[in-house]
TrEMBL record:
Top-level taxonomic group: Bacteria
Every Calcineurin-like phosphoesterase domain range: 178-376
Biased composition (Low complexity): 544-558
Xref: InterPro entries: Ap4A_hydrolase (IPR050126), Calcineurin-like_PHP (IPR004843), Metallo-depent_PP-like (IPR029052), MPP_PrpE-like (IPR041780), P-loop_NTPase (IPR027417), PNKP_bac (IPR024028), PNKP_ligase_dom (IPR032380)
UniProt xrefs under PANTHER family: BIS(5'-NUCLEOSYL)-TETRAPHOSPHATASE PRPE [ASYMMETRICAL], METALLOPHOSPHOESTERASE
Domain Polynucleotide kinase-phosphatase ligase residues, every copy: 465-688, 715-903
NCBIfam families listed in its UniProt record: bacter_Pnkp (TIGR04075)
One term of GO molecular function: kinase activity
The protein, known as: Polynucleotide kinase-phosphatase
Entry annotated with the keyword Kinase: yes
Keywords: Kinase, Transferase
């Protein structure tokens, strides 16, 4: 029996159906009418509950079949009406119905029932009625719709029976390729030879010089999506080559609607000689003289073709006209019809051709669907589907897809062999204008499957909050390919005067079995993700960015024409950093020149990069927060404390005992001044756009970029802006998240060196740089099991924070590590400096009583959140690298943003 089918046991009561089912099938595969009757009435023999019981049975069976599970129905099923419902259920879910009849003598059935206490009193006439109905049914089971009928006569034959599960003909999941999938050929043999040769296949020819086979030296398998024949100059030649490749095991082939029509003609059925069939018939007639058996072989070949194939572990589905996910691996006339002809809206266009239903726009399946049938000017991915019919017979191109590389290879048609009824256009499923995202992709309670952490749940209310942010504030979702995870703080320190201390971070990683960690300087800015494309054309091709915006000075193409976005620069919640797209392009333009000068485009074999970074100063993004929350506190303190201290000092001079109060107020004033100094480090002037913002100084702090001198002019507009990249997340076809951090930082160092070389020798037309854009990231490698190394790490942190630094992030050097229990370890633990935490917890947080209270921190939720978001980020990168559809990448990205709305202490 097929491995996916609805197995219907047929037999009188007492024939041993339940025993037979228990012997040959898993308990979960069997749905018993007795069990369902007991579910609804607490008595499996209560015949009055049969109606409800069978409703339950059909519901359970339907759910199993929908999930692709073999299902066995254990009931008498001797009446045609009961079997009719089951056959309809099998057809509804496009599986084959199989009948197993247990034809057991009446006396044996009676004896078995008598041995059961619950059926000892069953009247003999019930068994007799079942036997009569069974006899009437045996001749008609196949006509009722059962694809296979097995009749077991007598107890001995039933006991000796063996169940053999056969793979469905379309189930080739065990065949993993690699594959070269060829689009519609339509008799263009010469172009097919050229394409196969370009793909690396060696052709074999017969004595007449005709190609009869082609094999790839690396063992690749060709897969043909059908429509081998009609319209073109040599349909017999194409058939001869493809049939030879299939017979030799070098190729697979699915039928197209043109093969289906040719097969009906060769079988003697009446068909219209239209749409190129007349040309094929004429060519076959010329073939008859040289090879009289050719027609018979073609008919046999066409009859052997299977509607579609599921390949490569279920990751690839090949058919002729496309196939929704619910039909993958299913077997029915409806599935075959859709695979051959697709689905139509019932309308016709101005050319009299049927309007195709755009099923690919709604496709959300995990398997890539590769098909043909509807000619398009070029092959484009849409929602993990691609149409390879690029109109070779109409003068277009013949296209193949290399799998799993997802690389397209095509050759031009030698001429227009057949005039198309209508011009080629991207209106077919797979065209570039399909709907890439849908509200249903993100709303409601969701569960996202990840490779590194299993299923991660997203609550409905969190999804709603993310949707609000994403729809109103975020960058174009086509550019939003990744969101960075939140970061867990180190465990609360017991060191006097400290809330966080690096010793705790080192101890945590040591406990997880991570010996080498890298301490990276925590920059005083905002987390930023940079999607950088080599140019605007790459951005349009790879990510679908719009065209038609004026490119900023210095980023235009050689002709200075209208450009477009060459990427994106956004916050960790997906919002663009700059309201002005031109400013974004300036940053991307400078960074792109650095990547080019460093040789990374070629070295990484990519035309786009995704980077994780910090953008400084913090005031670029958080000006409102600084002005209304932090600057207000500093201004109030500076206004109040001088008067308070003056009054108290005057009172003390007059002999009033206010020494304790004066001391406390002086400490408070010092704390407030330290608070102002702490947040002030995160603000500095940027161009002429931030003059007068709170906490900014006209004179830069040591080591920070300053403002352009009046009249200096001529800069590229990035005055004062610093970008500190610390990780390259992905490149074309690759996720780089597992690249060790020392190697990551080495790549970043090359970018910084490249910018220095550009500054020393700017290209013609480049504006001079007032300051370098790229900032280095200080780092130190620590051995968590070496006390001296740990002590050096602590000293480095103390020096860093004493000089005004924010702190550091401690990461496993190897990246993407798992602990002894197999779980992911934290990708990074932040250890913030004593003075920086003053901004977070308030000016007076360092007082002993306040520290004692603050040390009661609940970090479990924050740590869990960090790991879940990390796993989702990795999943987004993996899906992006694999070329999965936008909705799949966006699903993981959106989930990160949704988790950000989970309630957690914002100070952690």
């Amino acid at each position: 029996m097929p491995d996916l089918s609805l197995v219907v046991l047929v037999g009188a009561t007492g024939s041993g159906k339940s025993t037979f089912a228990a012997r040959h099938f898993k308990p979960t595969e069997v749905v018993s009418s007795d069990f369902c009757r007991a579910l609804v009435s607490d008595d499996e023999n209560d015949q009055s509950a049969s109606g409800d019981a069978f409703d339950v049975l059909h519901y359970i069976a339907g759910k199993r079949l929908a999930a692709g599970r073999l299902t066995v129905v254990d009931a008498t099923n001797v009446q045609p009406e009961s079997r009719k419902q089951l056959v309809a259920l099998a057809r509804q879910y496009d599986v084959l119905p199989v009948a197993i009849v247990l034809d057991i003598p009446e006396q044996v059935c009676a004896e078995r029932n008598a041995a059961r206490p619950d059926r000892a009193g069953l009247p003999r006439r019930v068994i007799q009625r079942h036997q009569r109905e069974l006899r009437r049914s045996l001749r008609h089971l196949e006509r009722e719709g059962f694809r296979k009928v097995h009749v077991l006569r007598g107890a001995a034959e039933t006991d000796a029976a063996e169940i053999v599960r056969e793979r469905r003909f379309n189930d080739l999941r065990h065949v993993t390729g690699p594959f070269d999938i060829v689009g519609d050929i339509h008799g263009c043999r010469s172009e097919l030879e050229t394409l196969l040769t370009g793909l690396g296949y060696a052709l074999t020819r017969d004595d007449a010089g005709r190609p009869v086979d082609a094999a790839h030296p690396d063992g690749r398998t060709a897969v043909f999506v059908g429509d081998l024949v009609d319209r073109g100059p040599d349909s017999p030649g194409v058939l001869r080559l493809v049939m030879g490749m299939v017979a030799a095991g070098h190729a697979l082939c699915v039928p197209g609607n043109h093969e289906n029509k040719l097969g009906r003609y060769l079988s003697g059925r009446k068909v219209q000689h239209s749409h190129g069939l007349a040309e094929t018939i004429e060519q076959l007639e010329r073939e008859d003289a040289a090879d009289p058996d050719f027609r018979a072989r073609v008919r046999e070949f066409i009859e052997s073709l299977v509607s579609h194939y599921v390949l490569d572990g279920g990751a690839l589905v090949v058919c002729h006209a496309g196939l929704p996910e619910k039909y993958h691996g299913r077997t029915s006339g409806r599935v075959r019809s859709h695979a051959l002809y697709g689905d139509t809206t019932g309308e016709t266009d101005e050319f009299g051709l049927p309007v195709r239903y755009p099923w690919a726009e709604d496709y959300r399946g995990r398997a890539a669907v590769v098909y043909g049938h509807t000619p398009t000017p070029s092959a484009n991915w849409l929602n993990n589907t691609i149409c390879l019919d690029t109109g070779a017979v109409f003068g277009g191109r013949m296209t193949a897809l290399r799998w799993p590389e997802r690389e397209l290879v095509d050759v031009p048609a030698e001429r227009v062999w057949y005039e198309p009824t209508k011009p080629l256009a991207s209106e077919a499923p797979g065209g570039a204008d399909g709907r890439p995202l849908d509200l249903a992709d993100v709303t409601g309670r969701r569960s996202v499957e990840t490779r590194h952490m299993g299923r991660i749940a997203v609550k409905e209310e969190n999804a709603a909050a993310a949707l609000e942010v994403m729809s109103r504030f975020a960058v174009d979702p086509r550019l939003l390919t990744y969101l960075p995870p939140t970061m867990a703080p180190c465990a609360t320190s017991k060191e006097e005067g400290y809330l966080e201390h690096p010793a705790e971070a080192f101890a945590a990683y040591r406990a997880d079995g991570v010996r080498q960690v890298v301490c990276e300087e925590k920059h005083m800015g905002s987390r930023a993700v940079v999607l950088l494309c080599r140019d605007a054309d790459v951005a349009r091709e790879r990510f679908g960015t719009p065209q038609g915006t004026q490119a900023p000075q210095g980023t235009q193409g050689p002709e200075g024409a209208l450009g477009g976005a060459s990427g994106a620069l956004y916050t960790r919640t997906g919002r663009p950093f700059f309201d002005d797209p031109e400013m974004t392009e300036r940053v991307l333009g400078r960074l792109g020149r650095c990547v080019d000068a460093a040789g990374l485009w070629a070295e990484l074999d990519t035309d786009w990069l995704l980077l994780d970074a910090e953008l400084m100063p913090w005031s670029l993004k958080a000006a409102g927060l600084l002005r209304h929350q932090y600057a207000a506190v500093g201004a109030a303190a500076r206004t109040v404390f001088p008067g308070v201290l003056t009054a108290l000092e005057s009172a003390a001079a007059r002999g009033v005992d206010v020494a304790d109060l004066l001391g406390r107020q002086r400490e408070r004033a010092e704390d407030a001044e330290a608070f102002t100094e702490a947040y002030g480090r995160y603000c500095w002037p940027v161009g002429d756009t931030t003059r007068g913002r709170p906490g900014e100084r006209e004179e830069p702090a040591p080591g920070r970029p300053g403002r352009a001198e009046a009249g200096s002019g001529g800069t590229d507009g990035l005055d004062g802006i610093r970008l500190a990249p610390f990780q390259i997340l992905a490149a074309r076809g690759r996720s780089l998240a597992a690249l060790p951090h020392d190697e990551q930082l080495a790549l970043i160092d090359r970018l910084i060196e490249a910018e220095a070389s550009l500054e020393a020798a700017p290209a013609e037309g480049d504006a001079p740089y007032l300051n370098r854009l790229l900032a280095p990231t200080g780092r130190l490698v620590v051995d968590t099991e070496d006390e001296a190394s740990v002590a050096a790490g602590v000293r480095w942190w103390l020096e860093l924070t004493a000089a005004g630094g924010e702190g550091m992030v401690v990461k496993p050097l190897g990246a993407l590590l798992r602990g002894a229990d197999g779980r992911l370890v934290q990708p990074g633990i932040k250890c913030r400096g004593r003075e920086y935490l003053r901004i977070i917890y308030g000016p007076e947080y360092t007082r002993p009583d306040n520290l004692a209270r603050l040390r009661v921190r609940h970090l479990g939720h924050k740590r869990s959140l960090a790991l879940r978001e990390y796993a989702l980020g990795l999943e987004a990168l993996d899906r992006l690298a694999a070329g999965e559809p936008l909705w799949r990448v966006h699903e993981a990205v959106f989930a990160v943003l949704a988790l950000e709305s989970e309630p957690v202490d914002p100070r952690l």
